[in-house]
Write a structure and sequence with these properties.
With about 280 residues, the protein is an alpha/beta fold. The chain is built from 13 helices and eight strands. Helix 3 packs parallel to helix 5, helix 3 packs across helix 13 and helix 9 packs parallel to helix 10. The chain starts with a helix and ends with a helix.
């Protein structure tokens, strides 16, 4: 059976790209693009905004990552818009990673998984693994579906918990929590459908996670608006086969004068760095 990671690998080869394009229809962006006469953006505006980005950038995207929150804000209409957006991307045979950061157990986790994969038809989802493996299992039971587990995130407050040293017989005394999460994910990846979310703003952490999880794909936000350096991040996080990183960019492409030109330039810049380091 073809697994989610097989799908990701295939698309990376076809598009010659490691670029993941975030679809985050911020209300501020929609206000300028809304239909004339509307005082407030609608779910349809959010959908059209994202469809425009997809049309401009599909040739250069390894994957698209719609952010559920920016659709949920519109209520039921937003959920319908999100479903339509994912269906459009599915038709292009480009992987869809639903950025929802779910994290619960038992029947609740089952319901979240069914919502993401059966109702919305996403290919993968972001998860908070803090509740343990039984909170992840419903999302990875089908090898064709994937999960990216929050490991070392790009926000300033991530150090509050993710840098804690874990010991007491659970792990070596020098090991940080995020490194332990990475090792768990590596062990849990028995169906070739687990990845990790690792921010591109902290290259040392990227290198540490790569050492802990040498085989996994990373979803790496933080290049662009958040200030992460592309070359530094790639050198720290790429696998030896030149794959294993999804460079996730949202605002710097969505707000560019030409999203297509911006996406192509970033895709090409990634490939140039890979060439420079011999990958």
């Amino acid at each position: 059976m073809k697994t989610f990671i097989d799908t990701l690998d295939g698309r990376a080869e076809d598009a010659q790209s490691l670029l993941c394009i975030g679809l985050d229809p911020h209300l501020a962006d929609l206000s300028t693009g809304s239909r004339q006469g509307l005082q407030h953006p609608t779910a349809e505006d959010a959908l059209n905004f994202c469809l425009g980005i997809v049309k401009e950038t599909a040739d250069y995207a390894l994957a698209f990552k719609p952010n559920a929150a920016f659709f949920e804000i519109f209520g039921a209409e937003g959920w319908t818009a999100l479903k339509k957006l994912i269906a459009h991307i599915n038709a292009l045979s480009i992987p869809v990673i639903l950025d929802a950061k779910r994290g619960d157990i038992a029947s609740t986790a089952d319901a979240y998984a069914k919502s993401a994969f059966e109702h919305l038809s996403a290919d993968a989802i972001t998860l908070n693994p803090y509740l343990g493996k039984d909170s992840v299992d419903p999302f990875i039971s089908n090898p064709e579906n994937g999960a990216f587990l929050l490991c070392k995130t790009s926000n300033p407050g991530s150090d509050d918990l993710q840098n804690l040293i874990v010991g007491s017989g659970v792990a070596p005394a020098h090991e940080r929590l995020y490194e332990y999460v990475a090792k768990l994910a590596q062990n849990w990846n028995t169906q070739n459908n687990i990845g990790l979310v690792v921010g591109a703003t902290q290259p040392e952490a990227l290198a540490n996670v790569r050492a802990a999880a040498p085989d996994l794909w990373f979803l790496a936000p933080g290049v662009g608006a958040q200030g992460g350096d592309l070359a530094t991040a790639l050198k720290a996080g790429l696998r030896k086969d030149g794959l294993g990183m999804l460079i996730s960019v949202s605002r710097s492409i969505a707000r560019a004068e030409s999203p297509r030109k911006s996406a192509k330039e970033l895709r090409d810049a990634i490939n140039m760095v890979k060439k420079e380091i011999g990958l």
